[in-house]
UniProtKB/TrEMBL annotation:
GO terms for cellular component: bicellular tight junction; plasma membrane
Keywords from the UniProt entry: Cell junction, Cell membrane, Membrane, Tight junction, Transmembrane, Transmembrane helix
Protein name as it appears in the record: Claudin
Chief site of localization: other
Function: Claudins function as major constituents of the tight junction complexes that regulate the permeability of epithelia.
Compartments it resides in: Cell junction, Tight junction; Cell membrane
Entry-linked PROSITE patterns: CLAUDIN
Annotated GO MF terms: structural molecule activity
Stated family: Belongs to the claudin family.
Record's bilayer topology term: Multi-pass membrane protein
Source organism phylogeny: Eukaryota, Metazoa, Chordata, Craniata, Vertebrata
Domain of life, per lineage: Eukaryota
A Pfam family the protein falls into: PMP22_Claudin
Membrane-spanning residues: 78-96, 116-140, 160-183
UniProt source species: Salarias fasciatus (Jewelled blenny)
Length: 228
């Protein structure tokens, strides 16, 4: 059962890796809102981390990379960095967790190192979940705030894109993966402590074969006192 949970964690972590790559590549973080004048113009605008895509009626979608990083709003600049960090963390987490599984040939003779690798992998998955959740929630908060801000014109208002929902689902998967691995680590350590305690108690009870046990004899002085 424990091996199955570890395999499940690796599968969820792999899906989480694909999710982080997808949200970093998709240009649908913010999409145009069809309200007010935009309903008549019928144009569609997608804004992602690396490019914007624009399409009008009967015109194919055209995408263009951002001209300058400094021209981006702060939430998109932070999202670029955090999504890259999240991808790197997930990759490292999968490698470390693979070394810590029971079926792995890495550190096969060192159970303690496997337990440490499993705990480290779970912790890195939790960090990757946080690194994914922060930019997605930040961008979503900015979109909702500007949407209900009367000072912002209708043409500049945006709606939540598909990448944000994928990001929330990916963050949940990475969180579940980290919790499973840390749970496995706690089960392993508790079992190891019980086994170590039983082993020490057995060693205390069993006499060593090479040891010599001599019976206790009365001293000669005690014999003289009895004679007197």
């Amino acid at each position: 059962m424990r091996a199955k949970l570890e395999v499940l964690a690796l599968v969820l972590g792999s899906v989480g890796l694909m999710g982080t790559v997808a949200i970093a590549a998709l240009p649908t973080w913010r999409v145009s809102a069809f309200i007010g004048a935009n309903l008549i113009v019928m144009e569609e605008l997608w804004e992602g981390l690396w490019m914007t895509c624009y399409r009008q009626i009967d015109v194919n979608m055209q995408c263009k990379a951002y001209d300058s990083l400094l021209a981006l709003p702060p939430e998109l600049r932070a999202a670029r960095a955090l999504t890259c960090v999240s991808i790197a963390l997930v990759v490292v987490s999968l490698l470390v967790t693979g070394c810590g599984t029971q079926k792995s040939i890495c550190c096969s003779d060192d159970v303690r190192m496997k337990n440490v690798a499993l705990a480290l992998g779970g912790s890195l998955f939790l960090l990757s979940s946080l690194a994914t959740l922060i930019p997605v929630s930040w961008v979503a908060h900015t979109v909702v705030r500007n949407f209900y801000n009367p000072a912002v014109v209708d043409a500049q208002k945006r709606e939540l894109g598909d990448a944000l929902f994928i990001g929330w689902a990916t963050s949940a998967l990475l969180l579940i993966t980290g919790v499973i691995l840390l749970f496995q680590y706690s089960k392993r350590t508790s079992k190891e402590q019980v086994f170590t305690g039983e082993h020490l108690m057995t060693e205390k009870d069993v006499k060593k074969e090479d040891s010599i046990y001599l019976p206790r004899t009365a001293s000669s002085f005690h014999k003289i006192q009895e004679y007197v």
